[in-house]
Amino acid sequence: MSETPSSSSFIDGKFLITMVLVLGCWLGWQAYMAKKYPQHYQSAEKKTAGASAPAAETAAGDTSGEASNKPDAEQHAGSVGAPEASQQNVQKNVEELLSYEDDMWSFDVSSYGMALKNVHLKKYTDREGKAISFASEPGLALFGSSMVGRRDPIEFTIKKTADLEYVGTAQIDGMKITKILHIDSNNYTVETKLRAENLSDSFTGFVTQFNEKIQPHKGGGFLMPSFEHQEFYVNYDGTDTRTAVVPDQPLVESFIQTKIAAFGSQYFAVAVLDKSPVMAEFKASTLSGENAIATGAITHSLLNKSNQFAVEYVSFAGPKSYEVLKTIDADMTKIVNLGFFNSIAKAVLWLMRTIHAAIGNWGIAIIFLTIIVRIIVLPFNLIGYKQMKAMAKIQPAMKALREKYKSEPQKLNQEMLVLMKDAKANPLGGCLPMFLQIPIFFALYQVIGQSIDLYQAPFMLWIHDLSLKDPYYVLPALMGITMFIQQKITPNTMEPAQQKVMMFMPIFFTFLMVSLPSGLTLYIFVSSVFGVVQQLYFMRDNNPVTVRA
């Protein structure tokens, strides 16, 4: 005997299993993020990764391999082990600043270390409408040069030798030091060549340093960590690592064989890509307090006595754009944290960029992405629906078996398996489509939260920034309503008591999405609407499923 499945509720055993899988993925994601960003979850002591020397000191400890870009060398005053007086540069000249400006950015080149100061990105603003800037406060500078063992930056005489080139020279202890900066505004980089000739006995290498102010940490949403934090990213010795920075937690970490050292926020970063034949070491440190500062120092050490020493690197200060970073170096794209589902996130970003190039609206691009994903999993949804129908049809028989063999669990399981086999019903059949979409969900979350492409990207009406939550919670509410409708029109195989409990799932997901980016909520909402339309279409097929007596 076969029955037409009830359409009173979407929730059945398969959906319950799916929800367990989803929640399991949430918990796994939390564990993964806790491992990646332990400062966001606990006040654990930081450990040195790939250290070339023990980092038992605090962030204000020994900085013999670091340089300060402050003229008065007081950035770490009172806490830094100062070099011998004979090793310090005696600065007698007033700092000279040469300005550079084009359509992309503007900055000053300082005579102290030829560091960049007052870097302003013209095409980007923060959430309050202020221009995005780096090293715009006193005491902050990017990519300044000093000599190992000397606290103060090298004092250069600088000249603009071409539209995109600055050259600085310095005479120290009989040595001639030359630094050349070549600007490429297309990818926000400055190619740097630093050379010392007629080396003195005291010369042991160069240090390149960048420092930035640490911003207050902002909390994340429900079940989700916040992207509104700063972090160090280091590509070293064939691997890479990320370390989140928290204002009240001092940090010291050292790395050998460093290729890329970066520090940045959610959508913007400064970085150094080393291209020197000499192995580079990197030290990341922070100072807590009212004016908390994060410092990165790249050291190139002289290993063999020679008459000259040269290093080369590319400096970057700009948006965390995957496409822009790719033009610098393939490994530079890793500064954009696309998470565990990195490959899927790259594909999602590529597809969205392709759609956006044709349409010009990131919200529409998300809608098309959603439709494409739903079409891809449509065959699996059809299989799952047939499995759910088959399970619904044998519910009376399953209930009878439970009554008949309630005191014989083993026999009951055997009979249940026979019944489901005869009906070609699989209780897990409806889980696969949801399971396939979970990586897309997390990949899109990373893309929205890390890629500059969707930063301040408007959709329509009240949605002015897809990277922020819906200010009026309209999309989360619509999403919850469509999920409820989908439940009501989909076959169920659960007991009435279980159905009542699971009817709270739309409410749960609504509260889950209220604090997440509106672009992600748009994806779930469109997916739910597609699911409702798909279910109405499936319900046109009422062919009975034959069950062997």
Task: List the SSEs and their pairings.
Layout: H1 13-36, E1 97-101, E2 105-110, E3 116-125, E4 131-134, E5 142-147, E6 157-162, E7 165-172, E8 175-184, E9 189-197, E10 205-213, E11 230-236, E12 239-245, E13 251-255, E14 258-264, E15 268-274, E16 280-287, E17 293-301, E18 308-319, H2 322-328, H3 342-359, H4 362-376, H5 378-393, H6 395-404, H7 409-423, H8 431-450, H9 474-488, H10 496-502, H11 505-513, H12 518-538
Antiparallel strand pairs: 1-2, 2-3, 3-4, 5-10, 6-7, 7-8, 8-9, 9-18, 10-17, 11-12, 11-14, 13-16, 14-15, 15-18, 16-17
What does this protein look like?
By secondary structure, this protein is of the alpha+beta class. It folds into two domains: 174 residues, no CATH class; 301 residues, Beta-galactosidase, Chain A, domain 5. 32% of the residues lie in helices and 25% in strands. Helix 3 packs across helix 8 and helix 8 packs antiparallel against helix 12.
